[in-house]
Specification:
It contains 1 helix and 4 strands. It is α+β, with helices and mostly antiparallel strands. The protein has one domain.
Length: 60
């Protein structure tokens, strides 16, 4: 399976913009999606976390 990643729109919650990174892929006839949501002011911490999840996610 070849994963695809995208960034989502930037909704605003209580005046603070949020962003999303979405990881989606198909394996063994099933579709999977991992979503990571973060506020703009936490992006430097959120993106490395997203990368670790993306690199370590395994379908059991």
């Amino acid at each position: 399976a070849h994963p695809s990643a995208s960034t989502g729109p930037s909704p605003t919650v209580e005046g603070a913009p949020w962003h999303a990174r979405l990881l989606g892929f198909d394996a063994d006839g099933k579709s999977y999606q991992v979503s990571t949501w973060y506020r703009s002011d936490t992006e430097q911490r959120a993106l490395p976390t997203y990368e670790r999840v993306q690199d370590s996610f395994t379908v059991l």
